[in-house]
Amino acid sequence: MTMQRTKKGVAAALLLAALSACGQPELPTDHYYRLQVPPPKAAAQPALKGTIEVNRFSADGLVAGRAIVYTESGQPHQLKEYHYHFWTEPPALMLRDQLVAFLRGGNLAQTVTTPEMRANADHVLTGRIIRLEKIEGARPQGVLDVELAVRSARGQMTLLNVYSAAIAADNNSVEAGVLAINKALEQVYTRFAADLARK
User: Fold this and answer.
1) What mean pLDDT comes out for the span 113-125?
2) What Å distances lie between residue 157 and 24, 110, 146, 153, CA to CA?
3) Is 184 a member of any domain?
4) Residue 35 burial by CB count (10 A; 0-12/13-18/19+): exposed, middle or buried?
5) How far is CA 122 from each of CA 5, 11, 50, 53, 90, rounded to the nearest angstrom?
6) What's 190's domain CATH number?
7) Are 51 and 113 a contacting pair, CB within 8 Å?
8) Per the domain annotation, does 180 fall within a domain?
9) Cβ(152)–Cβ(122) under 8 Å?
10) How far lies 139's CA from each of 85, 135, 152, 172, 177, in Å?
11) In a 3-state reduction of DSSP, which class is residue 93?
12) For the whole model, what pTM was predicted?
């Protein structure tokens, strides 16, 4: 009798556990995004002679993290992070690497390196991400503000400018916001390349 009750108790417990598992909501899935800027048309002659070293960008606060940052229209001073939407790499590294590829693809310098290569550089490029966010609301956008500076190895400033772009997104989804930010980044790098070519 006791054995029979024990078997019934175990069966009931297993049934309850199975029902509880069925009733649990599915856990949210993490989503990862990257920015990819197509290279410009290659210049006939490099804008910069010699080697340019592109340093990792700097960024502060939420912009430095991998979570995608957004604001809601009507609350422009309040920044928020998405819980399950991330950049594949920290923005400071991702934007640096995209600029390296952009400069190489456009033949904008004779040689483009990063500090890890330990090359003797003739020019040094630094960048600072000021704003990198998605705006939600009636007019969704992707917004980017970046400060870019080029100086000679001896410290003489060649170029210093803040580049800003705000691109309309198709809707309020994170994916649409990322695509808008990608277009903003392409616009910023294109304007930077044009400034560099005039130096």
Assistant:
1) 93
2) 59, 19, 17, 10
3) yes
4) buried
5) 84, 76, 6, 8, 27
6) 3.40.50.10610
7) yes
8) yes
9) yes
10) 21, 8, 42, 8, 11
11) helix
12) 0.85
Where are the alpha helices (H) located in the chain, listed in sequence order?
Answer: 2-23, 91-105, 174-197
Asked if residue 15 is part of any domain, the answer here is no
pLDDT for position 164: 98
User: pLDDT tens, 14-47?
Assistant: 555 555 555 567 788 999 999 999 999 888 889 8
Q: Which residue has the tokens 């604001």?
A: 71
Q: What is the largest distance, in Å, between two alpha-carbon atoms of the chain?
A: 94
> In terms of C-beta density within 10 A (0-12 exposed, 13-18 middle, 19 or more buried), how is residue 57 classed?
buried
Outline where DSSP puts E strands in 55-101: 58-59, 67-72, 75-87
Report if residue 4 sits inside a domain: no
